[in-house]
Design goal:
The chain is built from 2 helices and 4 strands. It has a 4-stranded antiparallel beta sheet, with helices on one face.
Length: about 150
């Protein structure tokens, strides 16, 4: 069976069926260059407002749940107040493969609660720093927050 793409677009508005008999894409197991996963593939920073007791409680429980549900990931210390350049209290999680990155990101999107998420390549350089998705990054000085974030 050929792995070539069709040369003409389908007139159907529906997606074409993928070749489900084919093995899994190598992109789920190994990051493309220049991403170097020798230390880790992606950093996930999970932020919360330390001066809001309910957010701190939720973030602490989320940290523990991640520790238990994703033992293969590197989970850093739970910071109870802003540290270094971070605008809010946070903790960090590292993934090592594209599969882990996708699974963790989709899981966190559902379970993040009031927490914010920024993810990026670990080099922290201007060339490699980019948010994948900023779900809700709280501002230090803000008015009333809507529940529709």
């Amino acid at each position: 069976m050929s792995n070539r793409l069709p040369s003409q677009a389908s007139s159907s508005p529906w997606p074409t069926q993928s070749n489900r008999t084919r093995s899994r894409s190598t992109a789920t197991a190994k990051f493309p260059k220049p991403i170097d996963s020798s230390n880790n593939g992606f950093d996930f920073h999970i932020y919360y407002m330390h001066n809001v007791p309910s957010e701190m409680k939720y973030a602490r429980e989320l940290h523990e749940r991640i520790r238990r549900e994703f033992p293969e990931l590197r989970i850093y210390k739970f910071w109870e107040k802003p540290i270094g350049p971070h605008p809010s209290a946070m903790f960090e999680v590292n993934t090592f493969t594209p599969h882990q990155t996708g699974a963790f990101f989709s899981w966190l999107t559902v379970h993040r609660g009031p927490c914010s998420l920024i993810s990026f390549l670990p080099s922290h350089s201007a060339h490699h720093l980019f948010p994948i998705r900023c779900l809700y990054l709280p501002l230090l000085y803000r008015g009333n927050r809507s529940s529709n974030y």
